[in-house]
Amino acid sequence: MGGNVPLGYAANGRSLAIVKSEAATVRMIYDLYAERGTVTATTVAARKLDLRSKVRGGGRGGIPMGRGHIHAILKNPVYAGRIRHKKQVHPGQHDAIIEPDRWDAIQTRLMSEACRQRGKLGADQHADSSSSPNRSMLAGKLYDETGDRLTPSHANKKGRRYRYYVSSRLIAGGAREGFKAVDGWRLSAPMLEDQLAQAIRRHVQSNVLPACRCHATIAEAESLSRRFDDLCAGSTSNKIFLACIARAVITQGRITIMLDDAEVSRLLGVPEHTVDADLFRIEEPFTIRKRGVEAKLMIGSGTSVANSDPVLIDNLARAAICREGLRQGRSLSDLAAEQGLSNARIKQLLTMAFLAPGIVADIVQGVQPVALTSEWLQRNGLPDDWQDQQRIVGELK
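RESULT FIELD:
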């Protein structure tokens, strides 16, 4: 269609041919975004790996890529085997570097990231909350047993900001008929968001995906699994799954989550109404742990089945394989090729390879704190000392 040939390709008549060395750079950028979850973090990682732009005639190009360049590569449909003409995208005649289903999943994450950026100074935030961890992602979706909405709130203690979801009657000082104001909820926002996201992920993996596969060919089912794995990867998976909530209702000892059929179908790349509507309703028991006026919900029955985290267990197994490979003197590149992962992802997994045996045993048995997830470990990390690890993990309970 004219214009500059993008990184990863060379001109081939009226079509494009893949340049293997450049295609590896493109795939690395997509891997980094799947792991890091933001374009900014991807750009930082790409610079550390010295990933560079396409070398063109006249000595142009070949420079470290900035944020705009990375974003353009992630948004370019050429890499999915498609072409864009004006505002329309059409099938191309060239080979894809990135599988189309994976490219579509990446676009969903990019849109989610853009929405978060636009909402940073939304009504539920304040001028000092310029980073996404301060967003109240359940605003307008969370209700209690009286029909009262739980409103985002926060408190600042010793320079640290704490987020909560609080029954509106506690803030307004009133009470619903038949209920006392003291019966309202004041819940830790980060823990509630993390546990709801994990509950949705488990439900989609255990119930929605199998139902979708019943209506798919073998190739479509495999593609669906890869798409779901991409959605689960990286630091934005919680936000993606929380966006699927249409409404959540908390009653004593139980939380009911109604999922948005259209949003779940869009994320999975399947037509709406593919599966029974009953599968978009989740009911989970919970227990309450109180610390002062704040309540923390521990969602799940407390059994090993309810708290089993297959993603975390799988990552621990991969980490153990990588650790053993390093002990045998193998290189990161060899391990990455064997696992089908990038070097950066292998380094990330290795942070889980040295957990205290007691913590590993709890994870395998499904009795670890519900808040202890792969995302939490990647975001926070743990010290090398096993006693310190046990102490920090114990504080999550």
